[in-house]
Amino acid sequence: MSEPTKNRDLHGYVPDECPVALLLVDVINDLEFEGGEALLPHARRMAERIAALKRRLTGHGVPTIYANDNFGRWRSDFKSIVQHCLDDDVRGKPVAELLRPGEDDYFVLKPKYSGFYSTSLDVLLEYLGVRLLIIAGMATEMCVLFTAHDAFMRDYYLFVPGDCVASETPERASQALEQMRRVLEADISPSDKLDIRRLLALGAPHGGKHRQRASA
User: Fold this and answer.
1) pLDDT of residue 15
2) pLDDT at position 205
3) Exposure of 172 by Cβ count < 10 A (0-12 exposed, 13-18 middle, 19+ buried)?
4) Per-residue DSSP letter, 62
5) Which among 26, 53, 67, 148 could bridge 191 via Cys, Cβ 3.0 to 4.6 Å?
6) Which of 193, 185, 184, 183 is closest to 163 using CA atoms?
């Protein structure tokens, strides 16, 4: 009995194969929680940088994946979360407006801090042929760090641009970024220093081993 043919078309719009993916963690968020007010100004600056980076990556055929909390609402879906953040009077609306998903983007809903825990992210990345992840989002010391940790355990090349993450205080963000650089071997160079063509070459099979080669 022959093996079933794999369906290589997960969506129909974005590239079916790309060695690099942009993974946005919890960027669609109403910020209606304790500490959300302190986080908001940092999140807005983060969102501006991510939006610019996303445009650059999309121009090179790199897909974007939203790994977003479902806020414990097990009947929710991503579309309803996006609409809530865009249409209701919530703190996170300016961030959602900058980073609203496009038709070509992927998403997974996560129940815990990591984008990998109990989600379909592993399967999606396998289908796309991803070897290098650019992780951005919030909060740096929580969901971004946990997601980066799980990506490291799966042997992905890791980039966490230091200007594309946000925390309630700059100190928290800096400490988490330094841990990712030191322990997880992540490149934390600013987003405008990333050479996307080098990223694609590094992520390709036999593309190389040194993450720092993809930043100027």
Assistant:
1) 58
2) 80
3) middle
4) -
5) 53
6) 193
Residue 70 CA to residue 106 CA, distance in Å, equals 15
What's the confidence (pLDDT) of residue 10? 55
pLDDT more than 90, % of the chain: 78
- Identify the band that residue 76 occupies on the pLDDT scale cut at 50, 70 and 90: low
Region 16-33: what's the mean pLDDT?
A: 94
Domain total of the chain: 1
The tens digit of pLDDT for each residue in 170-184 reads 999 999 999 999 999
Q: What is the mean pLDDT of residues 135-160?
A: 98
Q: Which domain holds residue 167?
A: 20-214
Under DSSP, is residue 136 helix (H, G, I), strand (E, B) or coil? strand
Q: Residue 212 pairs with which residues in a beta bridge?
A: none
With contact defined as beta carbons under 8 Å apart, do 94 and 100 qualify?
A: no
| pLDDT of 117 higher than 80 | yes
Residue 117 forms part of a structural domain? yes
The distance from CA 17 to its chain's CA centroid, rounded to whole angstroms, is 17
Q: Tell me, what CATH number does 152's domain have?
A: 3.40.50.850
110 part of a folded domain: yes
Whether 4 is in a domain gets the answer no
Spatial distance between the Cα atoms of 118 and 109, rounded to a whole number of angstroms: 9
**Which structure tokens are listed for 6?**
């794999």
Q: Using CA atoms, how far apart are residues 76 and 9, in angstroms rounded to an integer? A: 25
pLDDT at 96 over 80: yes
Token pair for residue 155? 């042997």
* DSSP string for 117-176: TTSSHHHHHHHHT--EEEEEEE-IIIIIHHHHHHHHHTT-EEE--TTSEE-SSHHHHHHH
8 in any annotated domain = no
